[in-house]
Design a protein that fits this description.
InterPro entries: DUF5790. The chain contains five helices and no strands. By secondary structure, the chain is mainly α. The model has no long low-confidence stretch (mean pLDDT 93).
């Protein structure tokens, strides 16, 4: 009966490759979950509030954020274990995706504020014009 020996260095190298692949897989998934450019640029509606609501709906990035979190988690594990020969590309990609997610979330907040204030503004303008 033959017995396979498991060399620690081989196992560590294999684990490092799997960690890198996991980080890349989560970054690909995060990128895929980002809004398509057309969904934030081409919106049809009968009024401004409808456009803002459609835009706000298209700016949902919770799934992208979840995948980014997993990518960062596995990247951190790999870095702390000194498992990567060169991970600068992963760090750069994480930073890029994180920056986009942050910008989308900030834009969503701004659109949310506009969505909340437009009906009130419309009512105030209607009142002002009725009074004059």
């Amino acid at each position: 009966m033959s017995q396979t020996t498991l060399d620690d260095d081989d196992l560590f190298g294999e684990a490092a490759e799997e960690i890198r692949a996991d980080v890349e897989r989560h970054l690909d998934a995060a990128t895929a979950e980002l809004p398509e450019p057309s969904t934030i640029w081409e919106v049809e509606s009968a009024n401004t509030l409808g456009v803002l609501n459609a835009l706000r709906s298209s700016l949902e990035v919770e799934a992208a954020r979840d995948h980014l979190r997993d990518a960062k988690k596995w990247y951190t594990m790999g870095e702390r274990a000194d498992a990567f020969d060169d991970a600068a590309d992963l760090a750069d990609r994480i930073e890029s995706v994180e920056s986009i997610v942050r910008r989308v979330e900030e834009t969503s907040e701004t659109v949310g504020e506009l969505t909340a204030s437009i009906p009130d503004l419309k009512g105030s303008l209607e009142d002002a014009h009725e009074e004059s």
